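Lecture 7 notes: from sequence to structure.
We start with the chain below.
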Amino acid sequence: MALSGLLPALLSAVAFGLQYVPVKKYKIYDGTTFQWFMCSGILFVGVSVALLHGDLQYSVPPSVVMGGGIWALSNFAVLPLVKLLGIGLGFSLYHFQNMIVGYLVGRNGLFGLPRLQPAFAGSLYVCDLGCLLVLVSFVGLLLVEGRGSDSEKEKEPGPAPSVHGKGQLDQIEEQHEEEVALDRNLRLLESSGFSAFAVEVEDDEQAPHSPDAAPPEAETERRKTWRKVALGVLLAMVAGSLTGVQSVPATLYGLEHPEYPTTAVFFPQCLGAWFASTGIYLLYGGIARLRRKPVLHAVIRPAMLSGFLWAVGFIFMIQGIHELGFAVGYTLDAVGPIIIASIMSMCWFKEISGRRQLMIYWSAEALQLLGVILITAFSKQ
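Predicted structure tokens for the same chain:
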């Protein structure tokens, strides 16, 4: 496997794995304004790179712009998904779908992409085994219980939120105490480079009932639970699938125009992400206005810095896919950030401790590494 392809894939994994570290200790509230600030940072880097490389002379293909919009939509869909299923199960299902869709698209040459070529007869079955090992490793990571960082967050609280049309936090607390109390439970989890949001919501339904209170109807509760699970699984499948195909238009455009540099698709992708996130924010803000709800704003500079890192990761990802092919390149860039972020979670933030937890964690990481080696070593580019 050419170093020219592996090196960009590695750099992309590092950038995607680090992208949410700048906002780890800050509240993102409902995530809507956070994503808009983040995508503004993405667009800033996109315009800067286009000006430096002279990429504005090339056309802005609508398909690539749509690819950026698909990423923004899938990224935003993770918020309700994790609310419904929780961080562990929600992100695992999301990554399952993202990983398998990206691999199958390149493996079978869907949407007009070149098919993954075997290094020798039957070697693609070994690649399939590698993909299966990576998926099994996600199950292992689901069993790892991080101890969190609530005490750290309390010591270093984020700045008070600003609200569109209001300048004083006390006005929010007086008029919207319930919303502020709920938003206090929201935080970001830097578990991968392909997802933006995670949520910690206290489950009021699990609070003990007073003896005088009537017990809830078991059947009704079961139906509500199954509806939540079904909706969460559906969102995981949709969000993971969208993420798995969001870079297909950019890859196809690069194949159709080999005379263009790989950065030619970068600005259109960034523009699409910003355009979609702006539409989401305007729609959300309009609905909130009609319902007389506050639009809480997240921190600006850390969110934009996260966008900078995502943009850098996407540049290297496109270069890696160009050199290695979609199946291998995307798989490396889907699994690599999870490894990077998990290592940071354990070594830097100390969120994984205990012999049993560490054994499960390192076993899962070993499966991921073995799976990636099998995919890259037994395919031909």
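Points to note: Residues 147-158, 164-211 have pLDDT under 50 and may be disordered. Residues 3-201+220-380 form one domain.
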